[in-house]
Amino acid sequence: MPRSSRACEAWELLFDLLMRQRTRLPRVAAEFELSEPQCHVLRLMEPGAGVPMRRLVERLGCDASNVTGIVDRLEARGLVERVACRHDRRVRMVRLTPRGAKVRADIVARMAEPPAPIADLAADDLAALCTILRRALR
Question: N or C end of the chain: smaller count of CB under 10 Å?
């Protein structure tokens, strides 16, 4: 299905903005002495809820052995723990520790700080942008 030139332009602009901000995650990860994948795993987890290892593999889009290594390092730092699933003890769940939940909250807060090109937009433009992005994400 052909896309309009406006849709292509909008996507190019959004992609360009995101690519210009790609150095943010490595900087935030370094602040917490974590790798980018470790930060990403923490962001994918919700405090108080376990995540099956299989779901982390799916969300990260990488090999299970890579996710195992990432979780091993997070566990060694006391940020996550592995537990058996209550309904199926063969399934390993990964859960944030209280310390991990704090680090995750700090990472999420840092990543939520808008870059200047967004923060400097007028209030009406920000409202319109949020409305459009919410619609696009549905």
Answer: N
